[in-house]
Amino acid sequence: MGTPPNYLKDNKVNVLQRPSRSTDLSPTTNLGAKICIGNPAIKPTADIKYLEKRVKGNPKFSRYSSSPTTAAKDCTLRNSFQPGFVAGGDFVVGGIFPLHYNQEMPDRNSTYRPPPVKCNGFDPRAFRWVQTMRLAVEEINQSSELLTNHTLGYKIFDSCAYPLTGQRAALAVLNGLSEDDSPMCIGASPLLAVIGESGSAQSIVVSRILRPFRIPMISYFSSCACFTDRTKYPTFFRVIPNDDYQVKAIAQLLIHFNWTWVGLIRGDHEYGQFAVQGLLKELQGSNVCVAYQEMIPLLYNTQRALEIMQVMRTSSAKVVVVFSAEGEMTPFLRDYMMQNITGIQWVASEAWVTASVFTRREFYPYLGGTIGFGIKKGHIAQLSDYLQTVNPQRYPNNILVGELWEALYGCTPFPSSANHFPICSGQEVLLEQHSAYMNTSSPRVAYNVYKAVYAVAHSLHNLLLCQPGNGPFENNSCAQSNNILPWQLQYYLQEVKFNIAGEEVNFDLKGDSVPYYDIINWQRGTSGNIEFVNIGLFDGTKPAGEELVIQEEGIMWAGHQSEMPVSVCSPSCPPGSRKAVRRGEPVCCFDCVPCDSGKISNQTNSVECMFCPEDFWSNQDRTACIPKNVEFLAYDALGIPLTVISVVGASLTIGVFVVFFYHRNTAVVRVNNSELSFFILFALILCFLCSLVFIGEPTFWSCMLRHTAFSITFSLCISCILGKTLVVLAAFTATRPGDNIMKWFGPKQQRAIIFSCTLVQVVICAAWLIDAPPYPIRNTTYERSKIILECSVGSSLAFWCVLGYIGLQASLCFVLAFLARKLPGNFNEAKYITFSMLIFSAVWLAFIPAYISAPGNYAGAVESFAILASSFGLLFCLFAPKCYIILLKPEKNTKHHLMGKEKK
Ligand code: TRP
Predict the structure, then answer these.
(1) Is residue 177 very low, low, confident or very high in pLDDT (cuts 50, 70, 90)?
(2) Which ligand 1 atom sits closest to the C-alpha of 223?
(3) Which atom of ligand 1 lies at the shortest distance from residue 351's CA?
(4) CA 352 – ligand 1 centroid, Å
(5) Would you say the pTM of this structure is higher than 0.85?
(6) By CB count within 10 A, which of 20, 198, 400, 655 is most buried?
């Protein structure tokens, strides 16, 4: 096995012709395909003989040689798959690329030989990747530093971007090219590593096939997070970041733009499945919700696609994240354009964000503005020149080159009956505008391919540098340079570290590479087609929160808008309201309810309204806490009239006082005990004035003064009236001579009665003030939005005692006056006193319920009003008739008249 097979000996590039665009693919033929890999552990001749015996002697194996034509041979290739490109070398590296992005499914009828699977949709982009691999190998072969004295070869196969066809490619890459090249394993290609595959679904299949042989594979595009399971994929390496980072980046992007209501669409493959899973996990706990999740079926089906589009159209989620690749996106977008849906902001995954198939101008109205994460780009100096060397003249019969020409120029260089394209003129030149193939300005996946090939070369190089006795393997041995085993290469791959175009390449323990993405925005280019513009980056190596950098000014949004699209389920709640989640709907769909009074929210989208601190209350908009309104009976609409009334009352009383004083010698004044009258008038003035104490901000002093001043002046007033009643009663009862009752009611005694009656009230008040004086309080219980300043009575018992005492005096007065009402005389004061006491009692009886039920500051107003009303009552009842006589009927102001003796 030491010598390379003949076809590999000369390091000339062979380009094999494929029999047709279709290749046979059926499970049986795959089983039949002979897998011979250069495993020098088995001594070829001995093992072949052993195998021969087993196969011949065992009926189980007979089906392997059932065909009459192959019966003579012991082991044959049941199906041979032709590679796209092949070159010999000392060490051969396999390559698997999705040169077509679509295929037709084989039918399952087994009554005839299964027709070959048809791959269609030639992908010039993958063709470019293939050329990049070839370029890298050629560069390495020419290099004087890397793998000197050794050459690399390659075998490149098409996977048709589909797992089953990828499996075919994996088997093909393991096999020799034809039976002649590898008769029973002798001279089978010493395949050391595989560069591939593109899609994760295919890579999974390929890696499972390679795994038993321990052949390392380096994928340039399989980003599925599922590969991190090293026990399942021990030989898998990749030069693309794990999707865990991509979903993190997408989640951060959605959060950054406040797109909280998004749709998810994925293809039917592991890549889509794991990416959606990862994204959902990443979005957990964020404020982004998923409006819908849809899957484009593996076998594209317009009916299903239309259903998905219906969902997209009706949903209010305008941002749609798609984890898929050209394969399913091409037919899907074709139907999408036919449906004429617009206004969707696409968020593209790395798999299609730089796919050149969609750059054509007709896509712009539907796809312009798309944003996505593209994998890191690099620079490959020779690539553009190298790509231009590919043409039908140089590779006559290479079917792939023919397809490239068909795709780029719409003509075929190799006319055949099955082909409907016109024949090419032969003058076609590759220009930059053939971007699907020629776009070399910022290779991304191609750069990954390039890195992957170099990684293999560097590992091989390190392997060959091994010093015997110093090696990493058992007993410090090295690998044999003429007999390298794939698992030995795997060791070196795991360890490799090198620089390429200024970038360091290495693999971590899981075979992953550094997480770095460009943020790409699809904008309109000069010729109306779509251009990929870099508008930011995501660097997963940065600390959390600093990974995402976006230049927002440079972004062109979907629908050629310069304004960012909005994608929310419910518009955000303004300050002053809070979110109320709708039952059974995702958290992003909510109603906004205004905060209750006394609570505020000062941010948009608050989840809860906060209570205002004590002494603060919410403003009208519920956006801020403002100090509560302090209210008391001030000089306002209520206070001013009360003040005026009390001043008027006091002035009137003073007026009466003046009149009385002026006419103090007339009969009316003298008959009715002038001294008591002056006392009463004085007390009334105080009564009127003490209602003023109730107006204005309550203070410690005003509170104490309020009730005490009022009760004492009233007591004084009623004591005087009481005194007067007693005098009247006594005067008339003492008509019989010898009855010296009047001596008990002389002026001195009168003063003593008044003084002692008032004193009782003074004592009560003093006790009240000493024990539990009234004090000002801030009442917030009555109305929570206000602070009402009022006086607390301190002791209600004292308060009611004070009132009760006045009531008692008034009642006594009333009873006595009532008894005296019928006494003779034209001017009998007793009936006026009775009357005044009636009014007085009425006012105060009405006051009690009003006082108890009056809210806050109104209680003071009620009390002050009662004071004024009763004072006026007393003033008018007691003094109006007298003033009437004094001022208007002076002729009646005689003693005779008053005694009722005049007429008689
Ligand atoms: N990163 C993708 C993956 O890992 C890229 C990809 C390539 C892809 N080919 C695809 C995705 C085909 C879906 C289908 O799979």
Answers:
(1) low
(2) 4
(3) 5
(4) 8
(5) no
(6) 198
Check residue 554 and give left, alpha or beta (phi > 0: left; psi -120 to 50: alpha): alpha
CA pair distance 135, 589, nearest whole angstrom: 54
Which residue has the least CA distance to atom 10 on ligand 1? 199
Instruction: Please state, in angstroms and rounded to a whole number, the distance separating the CA atoms of residues 726 and 777.
Output: 43
**Residues near 401 by beta carbon (within 8 Å), at least 6 away in sequence:** 390, 391, 392, 395, 413
Residues 6+ apart with CB under 8 A from 480: none
Ligand 1 center from residue 886 Cα (angstroms): 117
Q: Where are the alpha helices (DSSP H) in 591-699?
A: 639-662, 667-671, 674-690
Is residue 463 within 6 Å of ligand 1 at its C-beta?
no
271 in ligand 1 pocket by Cβ < 6 Å?
yes
Dihedrals phi, psi of 328, to nearest 5 degrees: -90, -20
CA of 284 relative to ligand 1 center, distance in Å:
25
How many angstroms is it from 201 CA to the middle of ligand 1? 7
pLDDT at position 50? 35
Residue nearest atom 4 in ligand 1 by C-alpha distance? 222
Question: Does ligand 1 come within 6 angstroms of the Cβ of 223?
Answer: yes
Contact (CB, 8 A) for 199 and 352: no
* pLDDT (average), residues 68-92: 69
**pLDDT band for position 519 (cuts 50, 70, 90):** very high
Residue 777 pLDDT: 87
DSSP per position, 663-678? TTTSHHHHHT-HHHHH
| Residue 348, burial from CB neighbour count under 10 angstroms (0-12, 13-18, 19+) | buried
Verify whether ligand 1 is closer than 6 Å to residue 275 (CB atom): no
Residue 706 reports pLDDT greater than 90: no
Q: Is 233 within 8 Å of 207 (Cβ atoms)? A: yes
Mean pLDDT of the chain: 83
Assigned token pair, 831: 């009936």
Q: What pLDDT digit, counting tens, does each position of 268-288 carry?
A: 999 999 999 999 999 998 889
